[in-house]
Amino acid sequence: MTKCDSYDAIVVGAGHNGLTTACYLAKAGLKTLVIEKNEQIGGAAVSTELYDGWIYSNCSYVCSLLRQEIIRDLELPRFGLQVVPFRGGVNLDGKGNYIGAYPDHYVMRREIARHSPIDVDAYDRYYQLVMRQCRFIRPFLLRPAPDPTSMKPRDIGELIYLVKRMYDIGPREVGEMIRFWTMSIGDFLDEFFESEFVKAKFAGSGIIGTGLGVYSPGTAYVLLHHYMGDVDGSLGAWGFARGAMGAISKALGAALEEAGGEIRTDAGLGEFVIRNGKVTGVALENGDEYRAPIVASNMDVKRTILHHVGRDKLPGDYVKAVERFKIRGSSGKLNIALDAMPRFPDLPENGEIFQGDFACNTSLEMLERAYDDWKEGYWSSGPYFDMLIPTKIDPTLAPPGKHMMSVFVQYAPYDLNVGGVRSPNNWTDEKRDAFAECVFDRLSLVCPDIRERVLHAEVRSPADIEREVGLTEGNIFQGELTFDQLLFNRPAPGYAQYNTPIEGLYIVGSSTHPGGGVMAAPGANAAREILRKLGKTTAMPTVADDEF
């Protein structure tokens, strides 16, 4: 050990949830330290200039789920955060057809009518049901997940709150809600829409970031998870953080430092220091040690417990629950510097639809076949992509007249199958280039001159994301968002309130309630639990209540 400093609390990992926890702890008066293994803060929410003049959102690329209560609590706009909403979006089939997405509901109805007049009224029913589900679940995002086996007054109070919410919406809606949370996005869309193209347009939100297909049970909830955010009060809207996603992390870092917190980068964790069942601090890879009675881990539960605590220090049933927790890599990412705007021959020029995301989904069958490839350990031969050109909204991300493209890809396996052997080590430069070529083949269906426009491309497999960011298997949600891994089961029964069997050790990342995305709710909720146990209730984060 080369040095030893003492703190009230230490946060391991400067991702957005870790920074959020640290901000609230520091604002409550705790001497707080954040350690981060990389040179910059942000985790998956970072902005990097890998090609001269172009700013990439390397991993996370859009903002919607970031809770407005947290933005207000921490005054993030004062530290430079600005989120610009999407103005549209589009799904193309690569054969001349497209269906746009527009924020105006009546414009959206007319767009659907171009493809299926029958589906126009179905869209109203679909939209109303999804929004009802969002309105039900949103207040729980910033509330603790109650333990149904506990007789503690607070857990009983939260269960009563849950029952009251259910009573208010009525038995029919409760039944519909439970059914919705457990069904597949494919079955859900089949009940509403006739047109395969219309169904394909909405299906993408049900599979993004998850190792499931459109007909896998639980994917309807994944769609809901993507709809429950808001931008400027518009429920379900998405937006770009001006300056790319690292602007969120920079604002959180500035808020933390103003509150008196410290951040130390290039400080990789070696292990949690644990004595007699209590955490007493952290030991870094370089031998430095910092002491604190409270340590909060922004890493996922598997990385926290299995890599840095050790099975011998924990109850066997808890270790088994952590081992069972599903974190599966299914996503790749391309960030591309363009010398000019690509040509989209099937789209009207300079419409609002360019100020949103692009996809090329022809049918639910096409998406399910893409999933079939992943199950066998291969990247999808006809991949799903969620592509954006953020410079259409924020031109500061590239030199004048140039553009930047972000491409999120499903499906790409973590353990790539090469010759019948599945391993993350199979992601060689050659395989990564071949994966990129497959994506460019798909992109060229909608923008045929894409290869001519490319100046530089950063290609990331799930294994790359794990190595660089620390997300197990590159899973962007730090764990599947299926019903068996939500609420009081996330990440394990009895430990859904950010605690662990180690006294003083907390988990504050997306593998805890309410789940993944750049939401910051897990970090805020965890800070509330820590402060409550310290008796600092007057300094706790805002608790969400009925919003509508």
Q: What is shown here, in short?
A:
The protein has 548 residues and is α/β, with parallel strands linked by helices. The chain has 17 helices and 24 strands.
Lay out the secondary structure.
Elements: E1 4-6, E2 9-12, H1 16-27, E3 32-35, E4 47-51, E5 54-57, H2 68-73, E6 83-85, E7 88-92, E8 98-101, H3 105-113, H4 118-137, H5 153-169, H6 171-182, H7 185-190, H8 196-203, H9 219-227, E9 230-231, E10 234-235, E11 239-241, H10 246-258, E12 262-264, E13 269-275, E14 278-284, E15 289-291, E16 294-297, H11 301-308, H12 316-324, E17 331-338, E18 356-359, H13 364-375, E19 384-388, E20 403-410, E21 416-418, E22 421-423, H14 429-443, H15 450-453, E23 454-460, H16 462-469, E24 505-507, H17 521-533
Parallel strand pairs: 1-15, 2-3, 2-16, 3-12, 7-18, 16-24
Antiparallel strand pairs: 4-5, 6-11, 7-8, 9-10, 13-14, 14-15, 17-20, 17-23, 18-19, 19-20, 21-22
Helix pairs in contact: 1-10, 1-17, 3-4
Description:
With 548 residues, this protein is of the alpha/beta class. The chain has a domain at 4-45 and 62-83 and 242-325 and 491-539: 3-Layer(bba) Sandwich (FAD/NAD(P)-binding domain). The chain has 17 helices and 24 strands. A 7-stranded mixed β-sheet has the order 8-7-18-19-20-17-23, with helices on both faces. It has a 5-stranded parallel β-sheet with strand order 12-3-2-16-24, with helices on one face. Strands 1-15-14-13 form a 4-stranded mixed β-sheet, with no helix packed on it. β13 (269-275) and β14 form a beta hairpin. α1 packs parallel to α10 (246-258), α1 packs parallel to α17 (521-533) and α3 runs antiparallel to α4. The chain starts with a strand and ends in a 15-residue tail after the last helix.
